[in-house]
Structure formats: structure tokens, C-alpha cells
Design goal:
The chain has one helix and two strands, in the order H-E-E. It is mostly helical.
Length: about 80
């Protein structure tokens, strides 16, 4: 009797896991189809910061290769 209960519970767990996996796969595929993923490099040869030509940079907050967001402070001029 205990073997039958164990077998039924094991079978129910397997079907539940399969159902969860396949229902989740549909959601993952839908998310992938709605997005565009590109990779590559942006080659910047010259950057002109919004400082006067004679100003020096006091601090740099981002380095080459860092991910930055629009409006993020990248550097601070030396105000001396």
C-alpha cells in the first residue's frame, strides 16, 4: 500500500513539474520574441567634454568599458 502511494505521489510530482516547466517556457519564448538583443562595439575616437579648453578634470567617475546611463555624471572639472 505504501509503495502505491509513493508511486502516485511521485507521478503527480513529475506531471506538476512538467506542467510548470512547459507553461513557463511559453512565457520565456514570448519575452524573447518581444525584445531585440544586439552586441557590438562603439568606437569613439574623440570626445569633447562640456568644459572650457583650459579646464582640467578633477575626478573621473567612469572608465572605458563601463556601462553608463543618460544624464550620468562622468567627470568633474577642477574649479581651482
Amino acid at each position: 500500500m505504501a509503495k502505491e502511494i509513493f508511486a502516485v505521489a511521485l507521478l503527480a510530482a513529475m506531471f506538476g513539474g512538467a506542467f510548470f516547466y512547459f507553461s513557463n517556457q511559453e512565457r520565456v519564448e514570448a519575452e524573447r520574441s518581444n525584445s531585440l538583443r544586439l552586441s557590438g562595439n562603439v568606437d569613439v575616437r574623440e570626445v569633447t567634454p562640456a568644459f572650457r579648453q583650459s579646464d582640467r578634470i578633477a575626478e573621473i567617475f567612469a572608465e572605458e568599458g563601463d556601462a553608463v546611463k543618460a544624464g550620468q555624471l562622468l567627470a568633474r572639472p577642477d574649479n581651482r
